[in-house]
User: Fold Peptide chain release factor 3 from Texcoconibacillus texcoconensis.
Amino acid sequence: MEKTANRRTFAIISHPDAGKTTLTEKLLLLGGSIRSAGTVKGKKSGKFATSDWMEIEKQRGISVTSSVMQLNYNGVHINILDTPGHEDFSEDTYRTLTAVDTAVMVIDSVKGIEAQTLKLFKVCRMRGIPILTFINKLDREGREPLDLLTEIEETLEMETYPMNWPVGMGKTLRGVYSRADETIESFQEGDEGDERQTFQIDDPEAPLTDADREALDEDIMLIDEAGNDFDREKVQKGKMTPVFFGSALANFGVQSFLDHFVDLALSPQPRRSTSGEISPDDDRFSGFIFKIQANMNPAHRDRIAFLRVCSGTFERGIDIELSRTGKRMKLNQSQQFFASDRDTVEKAYPGDIIGLYDTGTFQVGDTLVTGNDSFHYEEMPQFPPEQFAKVTAKHALKHKQFHKGMDQLVQEGTIQLYRTPYFDDYIVGAVGELQFQVFEYRMKNEYKVDIEFQPYSHEIARWVTGGTITDKMTDQRRMLVHDHKDRPVILFENEFVLTMFQQKFPEIELSSGWGML
Ligand code: GDP
Assistant:
């Protein structure tokens, strides 16, 4: 199907400040066709970029969300799924990564691979999705290009293939050399214009000194000989990453990145389900919900469920079955998200993301499908929280709202919920502290319940995937609980307690997350 072949859906993984927002803005500018680029405001103007709107939400404490942007480039329809920058919300990012076919890894050339990049990279690798690397801030004195490539290869255990190569760096940056076309995109400091000059490498007009040429020749010889051969199949399986050097801020190397991106990024891929692989060309409309966001308007309790279209064509008013419950319904309240405002969607195709108004029907991980043979897409992976606390309502009389709020917020994936056997205590788990704060705020504001946390010292959660847990195996330091789907989980106080447990009870199989086996 042409619509599918011409779609690309991706997210950027990076450590805060590497330049994700800046690169997104520049890509949107190049795409041009969807909202006018002016709607994406740079931070310099004192306004937030659109992709930062959840940052504002966070400050207001309402919710923390991902937004979706689209651009059209040379006839290719590109969906960018934005992810929260703050690491405390990486669970959101993890889930968003289940809805993309490709990831772009942005690395700061001064800093190399940072903690959050590594964490998110691992999620991409687990899913085997292609990763394109953009090494940013070439206009600064960064690390040696070869050094950065070696770091990627060693830390991420992935082959690299530099698509272009910098000539100089920081103050002496002259341009980047494209290996495919043997051209130089020249760089002039302070020039943020859209028009970049490109020269054939042997063009005497190219703004390179003899020394530049010599250094470039040497580098190219080295990477040609010692580097990997380009292998498209490896790229598409996530085993090799094409690397691009550039500067998002100076809008340098961004367009050629986008040209290659369109070529190398995967179009919407088949997805595993309980009925086998579902091809995007399957006639039945189907998709799954990867994210639920509380509405921007705190006065209303309704939410927006983000659905990734996986097969068929979505049309407004379409009849679907929610496969978890078997309930049938018409989807007519659909909205598609643009950078700054919302339009009603009439049609959407595999790879697209639509937002559905929700009054509590949907859960993260739900599959929606037309026709009579419904199926489920693979379960949404559940990631191991790192902080836990027992939670109670301050006023016992509020228990009804307390349960309601807990239910809804757990379905939205705001926080993970565990219950203890016997006492049935509520234990909440989060990847980061801010997640607790948002949870507390929303319980108070939306459900009018003041809650109390009693923090636990446990740091590690492991799902029990094999063997039977007996009473003697657990105690306060290795506590048995059940997740919201009633699966057994053990909370360990620390690595040491976990290791001891594994040595003592080797028959028990443990996994660090559900769906991550
Ligand atoms: P994010 O946190 O990854 O979204 O990063 P931003 O896009 O907000 O960028 C973080 C900071 O780095 C901002 O001050 C940007 O202006 C700056 N920045 C982004 N790209 C470049 C670049 O190519 N060169 C330089 N010198 N600064 C950059």
Confidence is low (pLDDT under 50) at residues 33-66. The chain has three domains: 7-35+61-164+232-264, 271-369, 387-516.
